[in-house]
């Protein structure tokens, strides 16, 4: 599962998301890093914490946010869907002016 934010400002969108998380303006999200030092977005309410994470990948024409998890215990599709939906909400509410449209897969 993933979210694709189509934009000519993918790097700016990525940087703005990181900035708002770091500044605690997105109070229920935090940045974590995996063993490859890649950034992952974690939804921190106890029910969701460290279960499903969103991994951003910057391309020239889009920002992709891919569903990830820590170990071999893959979360069920419902749980993945909730986190994907919550991050879609964040994009629509806080970053609507930086992308043209979203697609989820």
Topology of helices and strands:
Elements: E1 2-6, H1 10-22, E2 29-33, E3 39-43, E4 53-58, E5 62-68, H2 77-94, E6 101-104
Antiparallel strand pairs: 1-5, 1-6, 2-3, 3-4, 4-5
Concise structural overview:
With 105 residues, the chain is of the alpha+beta class.
What can you see in these coordinates?
The protein is an alpha+beta fold. The protein has helices spanning 10-22, 77-94, and strands at 2-6, 29-33, 39-43, 53-58, 62-68, 101-104. The protein has a six-stranded antiparallel beta sheet with strand order 2-3-4-5-1-6, covered by helices on one side. β2 (29-33) and β3 (39-43) form a beta hairpin. The model has no long low-confidence stretch (mean pLDDT 97).
Radius of gyration from the alpha-carbon trace, in angstroms = 13 Å
Low-confidence stretches: none
Terminal residue distance: 5 Å
Tell me the major beta sheet.
6 strands, antiparallel
Distinctive features:
105 residues; alpha+beta; 6-stranded antiparallel sheet; 6 strands
